[in-house]
Amino acid sequence: ILNVEQSPQSLHVQEGDSTNFTCSFPSxxxxxxxxxxxxxxKSPEALFVMTLNGDEKKKGRISATLNTKEGYSYLYIKGSQxxxxxxxxxxxxxxxxxxxxxGAGTRLFVKA
Amino acid sequence: xxGVTQTPRYLIKTRGxxxxxxxxxxxxxxxxxxxxxxxxxxxxxxFEYFSETQRNKGNFPGRFSGRQFSNSRxxxxxxxxxxxxxxxxxCASSLMDSPYEQYFGPGTRLTVT
Lengths: 112, 113
Fold this sequence. Notes:
The complex is a heterodimer of chains A (about 110) and B (about 110).
Chain A: E1 5-7, E2 10-14, E3 19-24, E4 30-38, E5 45-50, E6 56-59, E7 62-67, E8 72-77, E9 86-94, E10 101-102, E11 106-111
Parallel strand pairs in A: 2-11
Antiparallel strand pairs in A: 1-3, 3-8, 4-5, 4-9, 6-7, 7-8, 9-10, 9-11
Chain B: E1 5-7, E2 10-13, E3 19-24, E4 31-37, E5 44-50, E6 53-57, E7 64-68, E8 74-78, E9 87-94, E10 103-104, E11 108-112
Parallel strand pairs in B: 2-11
Antiparallel strand pairs in B: 1-3, 3-8, 4-5, 4-9, 5-6, 7-8, 9-10, 9-11
């Protein structure tokens, strides 16, 4: 059974704080790790697709790192803004499979 | 380019009925995946279709089925609805030649009473 875990489950920060969350996934048969941002009443929006060990991706104030050997990825948000409030999902896909396993997400609340 | 569309957006059904949900992928995308989200749960994988073939299936009972047409549009059917089937159903499409970056539709909110 493939298990993807995210921590923390929720996070409350003040505007301007920097924060990070963790996604843990199986370290064998790795194919890709995805990060999504899901705002209430909207569709999940792709942030990053990471495929290589040591990958680092950056989009504005958001960045992510990947360690496939130990099975974890970190998502960082620098200088959080209220509009960053959303659920951040990670999803794992293994080689040879055609399904994507999602974690339960980290719910981020940024207070102005 | 138009995004992924799902119809209907909202649906109310009673126990025992059946329902069909529709998903139109982004033009050129041949892979369509379906997910269920219930309160407190992450996205649960239902199945994925590619070129009219189901490539993988999640751990859902046989009441959940799907199909894909030659134009890549996909339908999902749930028979003999149960209260626990109330959920948001999302579909996502992707290109075959990417690392399966998925683009999600707005979802269908199904309520079973």
